[in-house]
Amino acid sequence: MQEERKEFQSFKRKLQRQLTQVEEEMDSQKREITADFEDAMRKREHEFRIKSDELNAKVLEYELKAKLLGKELELSKVAQQKKSQEFSQAENHQRNLEKKVKETEWEIQDMRALKDSW
């Protein structure tokens, strides 16, 4: 019976060592998996930040382009309005000059008629 007890104690110690060894191995694997996971997460976070920065830069670029195009459009509108006003003024001036030319032609005709009637 004592022999069996010794064998049992020996078997128990052996199982305990194996259990401890398996637990240590599992802890080691857990640490390795956790470290790999954390590395992968840091890498993905870094890639995400880079992509986010790139997209933010693109958004800023497009906002600046839109702002610039808006200013260019406003300047074009102002220039177009100015040219329109200048064109209207030129047309009015042309009509006035044509009117003066006609009036002068009529005066000349009237003078010729007066001269011829004498």
Notes on the structure:
With 118 residues, the chain is mainly alpha-helical. 98% of the residues lie in helices and 0% in strands. The mean pLDDT is 96.
Output the keywords.
mainly alpha, 98% helix, single chain, 1 helix
> In which range does the helix fraction lie?
over 70%
What percent strand?
under 5%
Radius of gyration: 50 Å
Structural class: mainly alpha
Reading the helices and strands in chain order gives H
Mind summarizing the main beta sheet? none
Number of strands: 0
Distance between the termini: 170 Å
Mean pLDDT, rounded to whole units?
96
By DSSP (H or I, 4+ residues per run), the number of helices equals 1
Sum up the overall morphology in one term: rod-shaped
Keywords: Coiled coil
GO cellular component, one term: centriolar satellite
Coiled coil: 1-32, 87-114
